[in-house]
Sequence to fold (243 residues):
Amino acid sequence: MEVKVIGFWGAYPEKGEATSCFLLKKNNYHLIVDLGSGALSRLQNYIEIKDIDAVVLSHFHNDHVADVGSFQYACLVQEQLNQLSVKIPIYAATDSPTAFKQLNHQATVARAYDAINPQQIGPFNITFMKTKHPKPCYAMRIECGDDVIVYTADTSYFKELVTFSENADLLIAECSFYKGMNGTKAGHMTSEEVGRLASKANVNEVWLSHLPHFGEHQQLFEEASELYQGRMKLAYEGLTWHS
Ligand SMILES: [Zn+2]
Ligand SMILES: [Zn+2]
Fold:
């Protein structure tokens, strides 16, 4: 199994880059996790549109779904070019019914997931947990054979995240704020909270993502390192994890 960062910014993409988007690959199956602004363009550095098998969305904030419309047009064009034989499923929760329905398009189909039943998407078995965020948002525990990847999506720190992330091979954690700031109201985590989460959950590796447009990101890394001594990386486009 392979995990690749496509976009890692919070809010909006810096020049030539993208907000949240990850490419998961197992054998010939390709799953996209979130499709933020700029992501569709950056994705094509690594994969052709016609080879994308499914998309799963954590929530309907623009920095996670802004390129869904572009993706639907891209799928439509691929279909017209006879490159696509089936509608591409886009998985999301149904808390926002209007946004959910818009995932249906000529060449894409909306598929619902929930926090109760794990969802099998190709080779990936995904368990969802609702996070603490202003819009309904879901963290994902993605299992594939012996590999466990946890993606916090957007959330403030809460203790159930620790159990949810326990012993993950890779934790992709949102890290929107610096140590000493208060992310609770905005529904985001600080570097200190990410360090605590990674340490308590005993994960093997952590990536800091959903990065802010202020301060020095290296400081986030150092602050998280005070609590977590394992392998840690600041997300960047192309950063790849292999099992
Ligand atoms: Zn959000
Ligand atoms: Zn976000």
Remarks:
- The domain at 2-235 is CATH 3.60.15.10 (Metallo-beta-lactamase; Chain A).
- The first helix runs from residue 39 to 43.
- Residues 59, 61, 133, 135, 137, 154 surround zinc ion (ligand 1) (CB under 6 Å).
- Helices lie at 39-43, 62-65, 68-80, 97-101, 160-165, 191-200, 217-225.
